[in-house]
Amino acid sequence: MNPRTERVGSWLSATGPESDVVISTRVRFARNLADVPFPIRMKPEDQELVLDTVRWALKETGFLNRGRFYEEVMLDEPDGHYFVERHLASPDFISSKGKKGLYVSDDETLSLMVNEEDHLRFQGLASGLDFSLAFALAGEMDEKLGSQVDYAFSPQFGFLTSCPTNVGTGMRASVFLHLPGLVLTREIEKVLRGAYSVGLLVRGIYGEGSETRGNLFQISNQKTLGQSEAEIIEVITNICRQIIDYEHKAREYLMHNLRVEVEDKVFRSLGILRGARIISSAEATNLLATVRLGVSLGIINELKLSEVTSLLVLIRPANLEAILGEKLEPAERDERRATFIRQKLVR
Amino acid sequence: MKRLCDICGKNEAILTVRHLDKEGKATEIGICAQCAKERGFSGVEDLQKGAAELLAELKARIEDKDKKVVCPKCGMSFAEFKRVGRLGCASCYLTFGKEIEPLIRRLHGSVQHVGKSPQEGVKRAQERLKIQRLRKELEVAIKEEDYERAAALRDLLREAGDEPKN
Ligand SMILES: [Zn+2]
Ligand SMILES: [Zn+2]
User: Fold this and answer.
1) Hey, which residues does A83 pair with through a beta bridge?
2) What's the pTM?
């Protein structure tokens, strides 16, 4: 069990630019050490070597002073779900066997997976639409670690990654969007198709597969080679600005023409969250997302955007168990979740 | 010596089929009972009818073996890469360069990296480190009221690309 509290990463603070629509921005880099086989071909001693090298480089570059490096047990299922729910590790990472490591900075805005699909995968997370911060965080780690270790690189193909879909910059820039206005006005399909047509990848969040929960979407670049980091970020930023604009217009339309219906939906959601005695993670996510819309539209004034946003993470199974300090059966967990949410939302 | 089946290479061949190509060149292939059955050949006529087909299959198999480039560093073959979709090591990109170029072009619309390079990163990290050190020295100089030195340090900082802050 991860000894953690209700404190969430500062990227969930809803204080960044365009926080009413954009929950967070992420920039991830995939890097490999030269002369060590990629994870798919690694022997235990190779895994150990990479782990030792990264641990040493983190210490040498000062990252260990402002974060923690987790190894072994805590990263396996089911405990590792805690980090997945916090967007600090991938599901594949915690379900994989073998030696692995996870670095997490104290404010959870910077994290690094060792021996995932690539030797190193690190990301910078920022609140709202803020590529300059997310890129600065991940870029600093890239350059500092890169000054200590030898990255696998080719002048033609760029940074060499296990899967050719990541080769080149090895950079994945993504934005985590809350688009209830576009969903309610049924404009979402058009918007997502538009993003797709300019080479961006769109998927639902929190859903296994393509299922979307809480009108939360993630947009990221598909191509990683042939465009510079700045160009990739420019394309995705421009599209995001258009989507944000579109979402604002949709919300305005709703407030103008369907105000009572929207208020009804928002207050009913809040009502269920404040009254429920048993609630699943999926239902809570949907309702919290609607309440979040209500807060950003000024329909609900007594709650803060940051409180509701951080609850999206805190109510998830592993995080809830970490807060409560015990492992729970699903049925009991749904009951305790309802109690937890009630305590948080009743004023 | 027993002749092994030319198809599976495991069982003993119980039949040999001679095939004459257009130029009259003969090729002989041996087939085991199992392979013959699997391909639905029961009689001698069937076997002769199918000989051309079997030869084509064999030829393809031999060519495949020639083409079977293996990464000298990690031992991955191109066929294996195609199956798993992941490369085994950095050298695979060199070994299979020609083969994966079309794939990379399809994925990214380009086969030439234009982003940052490790050297650049290291250089920037070193530049930043230098600026940090100069800033610290400047602080000390100011504290010690050594204005001549502070002015010189400011010039160095400007040269190093540091933006002056007030
Ligand atoms: Zn055979
Ligand atoms: Zn290889």
Assistant:
1) none
2) 0.78
